[in-house]
Amino acid sequence: MYFIILLVYWFVFKYYDPIGLENATKSASSQFFSAITEPFYGYGQGDRTQSHVAVVEISDETLKAEQETWPVSYHREAYWLRHIIEAHPAAVLVDIYFDGERQGDSLHAFDSVLAEAKELGIPIFFVRGMATELAHDLPPVLAPYQVYSGWETEKSNMYPLLVSAPQDKGKKYPTPAFAMYSTLCEGAWKNACKAGEEFEEPLFVRWGVYTDPLQKIAFDGESGECRDSHAGGLARLFRAVNTGAHALSGKWEPPEDNRCFYALTLDAARLDALSPLTKQPYTDMLRNRAVFFGGDLQAIHDVTTAPAIGQVPAVQLHAMAFDNLITYGAGYFHEASRFGEFHIFGHAIELDNAEALELGIWMLLSLVLVRASLSDTQQGAEHSGTPTHDERKAAFPQQPESAQPQTAPSPLSGLKKIRIKYLVAAALAVSGFLYDSFCRGYFSLTVLIFYVLLFLTMICMPVEFETQTYTMKIRQTLCVCSLVYCVNELFLHLPNADWIGLALLWFTVPEVNEENSFVKSTDKFISEKFPCLKKQR
């Protein structure tokens, strides 16, 4: 009976969420875990990351320096694009709005630039907009190069790789980042990535917070209060802990004007200039990189929100999604695939793999804990010949705790055992950190062993600690978070919001020994009203 009540509780908590507790908690927890993960993105990847990506931005400072107004003339945009092409990038994506022909300003200004890109063998794409009937195709000059961008998703930081077009719903078309990735993997970068890999589920974008080492050149030697990717393990760990602590306290807010982007970012006004540091054109930094050319303007406000960073222009989102594909390949973090659909009382319930795994693990652990608790209670009563806790409470409701028989603790029991376990766990934690510092690999089997040991330490604590303090539940919840978080980073690669529910639901499981708990109270009520079901408990 207890198991059935837990199952109903999970169902109501998961799908009906009466006061929005689960959605709010999962969203906040997902943001928190994303924030503490970001400092480690790209750590230990060497030249596989950052050096492959660059962003060229048209900002308000660009318009001021060029004495232009928005919208910029097509001739000026073609001029900037020509400088990008002449830098011999690996591929170019243009994320700029084109509203058709203008009086005295023709889109044919791009003809010679597109011809030059074709001659040099440089793939080029232009962003069209959402794949809906309301969004029009790009003008004929640019239509052959268009890719769809813009989508509706319930989860933040989700980046679909393929979308259906309104004119051909049976066919999937690549979105900007995936179009760049698949094209380069089939051509210039075929030795660095595999074009035949399976990419179906939307990508969960992991954001980096440390800039490209060449960003100092783009800033003319100034750091701009940005740290580059040469930051070591201690610096990254401190930033993660600091961000996490502020996020938990509710005091942390993303900066309003953050220029510390993960991808190398160059202002369009410098495309025809020389760097005072290197005495070479700024465009030299774009060579052999996938270049994303777009706007970062207050007038268009085409932005997205990144955890622990704040609002970033959409062109940075495309660049970051592309970098995720280069970094992880087919093992990218993705939305959980569909497990199945069930019909209950006329309502269709969709279950994805993450939710199915969450339900299975949670119910298994619930059964184990319930059976263990009932077994301990029965064995204790049989061996001692004394009534159970419930029977004693019914017979002697006013009996003080001091009158109850005391058992002498063993030399190595209780807190002493726990201290030893914590010392071993701490030793493994230090070993894991040192291993990662030398090998520059954030997650390792050593860290996984540490999390597993921490998990076992919490679970194996004496029952009396669990019943005396509510803090024990929080500690167990943090332990499960650590374990599942590590397993997810190593193997599952699911969004944090998809598995955090497991830890939240786990928070209700240890209540089996609490007299006034929701589940146990419900179980007792049903047993009293329906005695025939009592044996099934």
UniProtKB/TrEMBL annotation:
It comes from the Bacteria. SMART domains: CHASE2 (SM01080). The chain crosses the membrane at residues 441-465. The keyword Ubl conjugation does not apply. Keywords: Membrane, Transmembrane, Transmembrane helix. Residues 399-410 have a biased composition (Polar residues). It holds the Pfam family CHASE2. Residues 33-369 form the CHASE2 domain. Residues 379-410 are annotated as: Disordered. This is CHASE2 domain-containing protein. It comes from Acetobacter cerevisiae.
